[in-house]
Every structure is written in structure tokens, then in C-alpha cells.
Amino acid sequence: MKALWLENNQISLRDIPQPNQPNEALIKIRMAGICSTDLELVKGYYPYAGILGHEFVGEVVQAPEKSWLGQRVVGEINAVCGSCESCLSGRPTHCENRSVLGIANRAGVFAEYTSLPLENLYRVPDSVSDEAARRPSR
After folding, report:
1. N or C: which end of the chain has fewer CB within 10 A?
2. Domain with 100 in it: what CATH number?
3. How far apart, in Å, are the Cα atoms of 65 and each of 10, 30, 41?
4. Distance separating alpha carbons of residues 37 and 77, to the nearest angstrom
């Protein structure tokens, strides 16, 4: 698949393997947004190398639960382990093992596909446009 890759403050278009994460949904990206976090990463705010982007709307093309197939979705960017002390204490936002879509230990959405756990996905109603769905709430 094609993806925008950031490395050493340079962006390039690369051909990379499509995500294949067990027990996660494979999502075809329909639209992605650029935010200030992406721009700061390009400037070198944090030493990130990989695919940027975490604001998106996409369509589920593979999933461990068939009811998700074909669903238009957006996603929570923090994927947590569910088994560390923070997760077990009800504080998953402090997960010691979390990955963050397009920011830390997880490829972002400036690509043809991404993957996320089902618990990170939110269905987008038909009445909401792709443009409105990928916009962060204010």
C-alpha cells in the first residue's frame, strides 16, 4: 500500500505492507486530517519515524467480528493493553504499554489502510459526512 512516511524531518511516499494485526480491524482510509501534532512531528518536536496521522474516517474491510464489516468508522487513537496496573485500576489513559495512532509505536492513517482494536472504533451514522466525522471535537 502507499503511505506518507516521516523520517529525519522529511516526508516521502513509500510502498509498505498493509497492516495485518491479529484481533484488530483493518480499515480502508476514506479521509484523514492534518492537525498541529502532525505538523509539530514534521518539525522535529518528537523523534518519530513512520506513518503520521490520527484523525480519520474509514471503512472496516476485515474484522474479528463480522458485524463491523462495511461500517464507516472513526477511532480512539490510544490502543491500550488492558492488563497493566493502570488498565486494571481503571486508568487506561495511563497504560504503560499503550500505542498511539501515528504518534507512538503504531502506524498512522496517512496511508491506504490502518488497523485498530474494535474497542477503539466508533460507528459513523449515515447522516454524518466524512468531512464532519474526521474533524476532532472542539
Report:
1. C
2. 3.90.180.10
3. 38, 21, 34
4. 13
